[in-house]
Structures are given as structure tokens and as C-alpha cells.
């Protein structure tokens, strides 16, 4: 009986505790310094990370539909958005590792291309965790992410 109560309690905790980001937010913020050549993170007049404007603003990327920000995205990124791609940490990490390969997989189009030519060789989970930390959703949950298929990043389509 004691084992059953322990297992029940452990199951309850598993189901009610938010899933924490797999990446390290501080390491992701440091790694983002490479991204700022093309991307900025701003919320209205609030500049979170000053950067370039070659790529889209990455504020609130988690939970955003791919290709939905005011930016001139590639046809492939727009197609990914039309398929229902909503950026989450996993999608962001996969995308920034190889943007065009990711779009080919998501859209099913072997000729899909991203405007983003940079491929992150490491720190992809950290970068995704950092980008998630600068989303409105993260501000509401106190910096914890949830395992939701409705949250994602579409930003690196530069």
C-alpha cells in the first residue's frame, strides 16, 4: 500500500509539474551574441538584445506561427507556417542546426530553402531556451516552459 501511495504521488507530480527547458538560458543568451548580427529581440520600445534587422525580431518567437511576423520570409518558411508550424523550443533547436534541411523536412519540399544561411553547430538547445525565456508566455509562467505543441519559434528564417 505504501508503494502504491508513493507511485500515485510521483505520477501526480509528474503530470502537474511544468517541463523545464532542456537548454541553459544563460548559455543561450551568451550564444545569441552570434545571432545578433542578423536578429534583434525587442518588445515594442523595450530592447532586450540589440541586433541587426537582416532577420526577423525574435521576441516572442515561442508560440508564434512560422512566417507570421512582419518580415519578408522565404516562400518555404511561409509554406511551413501554412502547414501549421508553431515554434517551440524543439523546433527552434532543429531549425537553427540546419535551416534549409529543417524546412525540407517540415514542408516535404526537397527544394525548400531558408533565407537563414547560418547553421548553429552547438548550443542549439541553449539558444532555444533563451529565446523561449524572452517570450510573453515565459513572463507569465515565471521562466518555465511547458510541453506544448502550440509553442514555437519562427524567427531564424533570415
Commentary on this structure:
This protein has seven helices and two strands; from the N terminus they run H-H-E-E-H-H-H-H-H. The protein is mostly helical. Strands 1-2 form a two-stranded antiparallel ribbon. A hairpin with a 2-residue loop joins strand 1 and strand 2.
Short note summarizing the structure:
The chain is built from 7 helices and 2 strands. By secondary structure, the chain is mainly alpha-helical.
Labels describing this entry:
mainly alpha, 41% helix, disordered C terminus, 158 residues, two-stranded antiparallel ribbon
Biggest pleated sheet: 2 strands, antiparallel
Coarse structural class: mainly alpha
Number of strands: 2
- The number of distinct helices, counting runs of at least 4 residues, comes to 7
Shape: globular
Report the span from N to C terminus.
58 Å
Topology:
Layout: H1 2-16, H2 25-31, E1 41-43, E2 46-49, H3 75-82, H4 89-97, H5 99-107, H6 124-133, H7 136-141
Helix pairs in contact: 2-6, 3-5, 4-5, 4-6
